Amino acid sequence: MAVYDLEEQEQISELKAWWAQYGKLITTLAVAAALASVGWQGFRWYQNKQASEAGALYFVVQQAAERGDAQKAREAAGQIIEKFSGTPYAEMAALLSAGVQFSAGEGKNARAQLEWLVENGDDPALRDIARLRLASVLLDEGAHADALARLQAEPDAALKGRFADLRGDVLAASGKPDEARSAYQGALDAIAQGGTEGGETLREVVRLKLQALEG
């Protein structure tokens, strides 16, 4: 029995010595892990709250777009951009609202939201679509050089045909038929490679433009 007590005391002594050496580190790590867990849960809660509020505002943009209410769409999209710019809803709202603004003849407002998306968007596809629409707005305003600048960077393969087609429109409007013809041919080549949404319809439109250039 005495031998057992002695062994037990030795184990307790070793445990105390080990704890004296490593106990502070273990406690620190345990507290850090607990704080990290709480912090992560808080971050997830914050993200979900942000997404929920942004989603509610995006629904307002959608409803306004259906009614053609440019002011309501612009205001709701502006709130999302201001408060929830880190969510995907901000990019989608800017793109949707810009279309409503343009349809309502509010080119300046459409341009502002498209420019925000081009400069701040995280989704490459949405940024390309925004560049394309922004160039169209600039063409409508007669800002041909600015429109061409927006079309200069290489877009996603699915949009190459549309970018080349709009480039041809800008060049034709600038009084450069030879360059416009080359751009339209580039559009046809891109469409022939496949992957362009609405490719068949776009091909016929581009062919008509080429015929018009030929006079």
TrEMBL record:
Subcellular location, principal: membrane
Domain Ancillary SecYEG translocon subunit/Cell division coordinator CpoB TPR residue range list: 16-214
Where does the record place it? Answer: Cell membrane
The answer on whether this UniProt entry bears the keyword Electron transport reads no
Q: What InterPro entries does this protein's entry cite? A: SecYEG/CpoB_TPR (IPR018704), TPR-like_helical_dom_sf (IPR011990), YfgM (IPR026039)
Any Pfam family hit? TPR_21
Q: How does it sit in the membrane?
A: Single-pass type II membrane protein
Q: Which keywords are on file for this protein?
A: Cell membrane, Chaperone, Membrane, Transmembrane, Transmembrane helix
Q: Which family does it belong to?
A: Belongs to the YfgM family.
Q: What is this protein called?
A: Ancillary SecYEG translocon subunit
Give the source species.
Aromatoleum buckelii
Identify the taxonomic lineage of the organism of origin.
Answer: Bacteria, Pseudomonadati, Pseudomonadota, Betaproteobacteria, Rhodocyclales
